[in-house]
Amino acid sequence: MKDAAITRFMEAHPFLKMLLPLVIGIIIADKGEDTLPLPAIVFYGAIGLSLTAMVGCLWLKGWRRRHWFGGFSFLFFLLLGFMLCKLKWETTVPSYPTYACTYEGYLTDSPDEKRRSRLCPVALTGRWEGDRYIPTPNNILLYLPKDSQTDGLKPGDRLFFHGTITPPQPSGIPTGFDYPRYLRHHQVNGTLYTTRWRQQETPHKSLKTKALSIREHILDYYRKTGLQGERFAVLSALTLGYKQELDSEIQARFSASGAGHVLALSGLHIGILCMVLHCFYGIFLRGGRHRKLRRLLVIPAVWAFVCLVGLPLSAIRAAWMFTLLAVGSLFTRVGYPLNTLALTAFGMLVYNPFFLFDVGFQLSFLAVASLLLLQPKFEQLLPPIQHPVLNYFWQITTVSVAAQIGVIPLSLYYFALLPLYSLLVNLWLIPLTWLIVALALPFILASFFPVGTLQIAGANLLSLLLDMMNNLLETFNRLPGSSVNDIVLQEAEVIVIYLALIVGCYSWAKKWLRGWTITLAILICGTCRSIYRHETALQQHSLQIGNLHGVPTLRHIHGTSITDFIPDTTSQPSVRTNDITQVESLRICQLHDNRWEKLTASKKLPLDYLYVSKGFTGELRPILNLFSINCIVLDTSLSKYRRERYLKECKELEIKCINLEKSRYLEVKL
């Protein structure tokens, strides 16, 4: 009976059967990106053979045909995902010269203001080497100085700039976050800071840049109507997907209360837009005979909005789902929403396999999948409620609980944050978000007219609603125990939790008693692994020497306690104490400038490690007059020339030397 139920479920959701092996293939290719250097012809051949076998199984007769066809189709889509991911990796391999060149490119989004510079996402079009122009279709992060020249930069502006583009470098000391891989998943494979740049008069024209220029116009309109500060930041994120103005305090407030999902344009915002458009079209196209026409007219408006907000993945997912469901309703076809969701994910991953590694993509699809599977079951726990207010609260409760179940494990993995009052927050936040977004749509349309009294009144009303939202979140965040911030999960633990959720939910839906035993066994195994990991972490006692986010660092790890020592760059040599660090029985000196060369000592100070990093340009011999050194460590921030020079000097002085160029960091057990 259980096998028959699973078979019926999978037959009703064919794209789910295609999506699962595709995702597995993408993950395998991404994890083995540096360890599976097989030629592409091997994968093309395997894909061709599996496809041929699939077609051949259609001609077979008997019960084996179904199993063989399922096996070969699983292999085909797994290899397809593997191959698509490998091809995408090849397009992100850095191929820049190691010397300075003049590059041409255009801004793909609004600059993001940093503390000392402006971060500009740039799509390169080419570079000049002498008089020769070489096409260079890559994406980089360009850092420009904060001045009046960069104030007016906007998406689509063409730039000429000079410098040496460098591939993103990983942190030497492991932090759990691979920044270079993150950038390559977003198809960015280089960074450059330069002061030598100029803007071209003719901007780059494309559908996205035109849409983003309209967004810039609306943002300026927001400012002209008096929306400033936090109100402007939240409204821009809610309605236009513009998050550059959201500071860490605002994001922390939304995240701690479980309201972070409203800042990501998704199904909620698309649903509000569709309802407003249906009401608007209903004014001109009344009656049931125009119902299909109204649905058809909503589709281009939805996609125009998605382009306007910069094509975020959560909004693309919602727009595709709405489009497929709307087109199906035009032909009076009743589909399965979960299959539609799987089709949407399948199409997006075939287009770009790297979408799978976007946090917003993962949270969006998991939330909707959990909602589609669990919310109807939760709703049936109570008999139909006739009272509209009570029914609303019950509907919001079931929707919030179902969506939260799907995303909590992943949220803990990425953010280590568990909001405890998210259910109560959503009861009031969702209708407030509906009011703000619904009112903002006609307010945005008014941006194409001169600012007048009506627009100012609309801005004041929006300000009032935004203040209510802010006060609501602050009230819940001040409650005792509003969130738990110290739950850290690893990948294996997340997989165990989702596996237990799937088996447990299926057992509940199908009343499968043995399934509860399996669920309990999975949870026990996962708990044992977590306890073992925690006990292992408590026993860890070591010192790590390496580069951390561009800063030469000594990291002392003792159980769950982590202490970082960074060099003192401000004090005078006579009072600088942070350069010499005593950790347990080890003594380390961080050498990052030439000031030690001018000092003398009557007796040499014993050192276990001399950590040499960028900033030191002298010779090692004068340092040996001050210290008795057991080992010298060369940081990756040093240039290749200086590393080779110091390696040669250490060899002549017969001192042990460790180059961190390959190992990235040195770990010493204590």
Explain this structure.
With 670 residues, the chain is of the alpha+beta class. 54% of the residues lie in helices and 16% in strands. The strands form 4 sheets. Strands 1, 2, 3, 4, 5, 6, 7 and 8 form an 8-stranded mixed sheet that branches. A 5-stranded mixed sheet has the order 14-15-16-17-18. The chain has a 4-stranded antiparallel sheet with strand order 13-12-11-19. Strand 14 (580-583) and strand 15 form a beta hairpin. The protein is globular. The chain starts with a helix and ends with a strand. 27% of the residues are buried. The model is unreliable at 571-576 (pLDDT under 50).
Strand content: 15-25%
Shape: globular
Per DSSP E runs of 2 or more residues, the count of β-strands stands at: 19
The biggest sheet, with number of strands, parallel, antiparallel or mixed sense and barrel status, is: 8 strands, mixed
Task: Please tell me how large the radius of gyration is.
Answer: 29 Å
Percent of residues in helices: 40-55%
Spatial gap, N to C terminus: 58 Å
Tally of helical runs: 22
Task: Return the average pLDDT rounded to an integer.
Answer: 82
The parts where pLDDT drops under 50 for at least 5 residues are: 571-576
Query: Structural class of the secondary structure composition?
Result: alpha+beta
Characteristic key phrases:
670 residues, alpha+beta, 22 helices, 19 strands, globular
Topology:
Layout: H1 2-12, H2 14-31, H3 40-57, H4 64-91, E1 101-107, E2 112-113, E3 117-129, E4 132-135, E5 139-145, H5 148-151, E6 158-163, H6 179-185, E7 191-193, E8 197-199, H7 207-224, H8 229-240, H9 248-256, H10 267-284, H11 291-308, H12 313-330, H13 337-351, H14 359-379, H15 388-415, E9 418-419, H16 422-445, H17 453-477, E10 483-484, H18 491-510, H19 513-538, E11 541-548, E12 551-558, E13 561-565, E14 580-583, E15 586-591, E16 605-612, H20 621-624, E17 627-634, H21 640-653, E18 656-659, H22 660-663, E19 665-669
Parallel strand pairs: 5-7, 15-16, 16-17, 17-18
Antiparallel strand pairs: 1-3, 1-6, 2-3, 3-4, 3-5, 6-8, 9-10, 11-12, 11-19, 12-13, 14-15
